[in-house]
Structures are given as C-alpha cells and as structure tokens.
Amino acid sequence: MKTNDYISPDVAKKIGEKLNINFDSFHLLEFTDAMNLELNAELKTDPNMVPETISEDELEDIGRLTLAHIHPYTD
Fold first, then answer.
1. End-to-end Cα spacing for the chain
2. CA distance 43 to 29
C-alpha cells in the first residue's frame, strides 16, 4: 500500500522523543512509516483534515496511536 509521506523522519523523531521512544532500540524509519500510514488513514476518514495544517498536538496524538498499534497494551 502506497502512502503519502507527510511526516518526515525529523518530525517523527521529535514526536517520538516527546513520547519517550528510545530510538536506540526502535527504528526511526519504522516509526516514520507507521506515522504516515496512520495519518493517511485519518485523512481518509476526515475529509476536512489538511496535512499542511496539522498541529503539533495532533501529530503527538498520531504518534500515540502509532505506538499503540506497534506495541499494543495487554489487559
């Protein structure tokens, strides 16, 4: 599946660091790709969302969703 790459590795790293992701044990490009995949899914469900106007808070939310999909929590 081809996704648009709206989130650069630099932005993903900044968001990941805010979420306390240790990129020594986690691949930055994997996180970047997963964030772009999550963002593309969000764009499909919300036609009013424009990638160029996404706030840093929204990027953090996308980062949290991405992390939850990569490392799901168990009850």
1. 31
2. 21
List all residues 6 or more positions away from 34 whose beta carbon is below 8 Å from its beta carbon: 66, 69, 70
Residue 2 lies in a domain: no
The whole model's pTM is what? 0.83
Dist CA 24 CA 31 (whole Å): 12
Q: Total domain count for the chain?
A: 1
From first to last of the 75 residues of the chain, give the pLDDT tens digit: 456 788 999 999 999 999 999 888 779 999 999 999 999 988 888 888 887 788 899 999 999 999 888 876 555
Q: Which domain holds residue 58?
A: 9-19+27-70
| DSSP codes of every residue in 12-27 | HHHHHHHTT--TTSS-
Side-chain-side CA neighbours of residue 75 (13 Å): 0
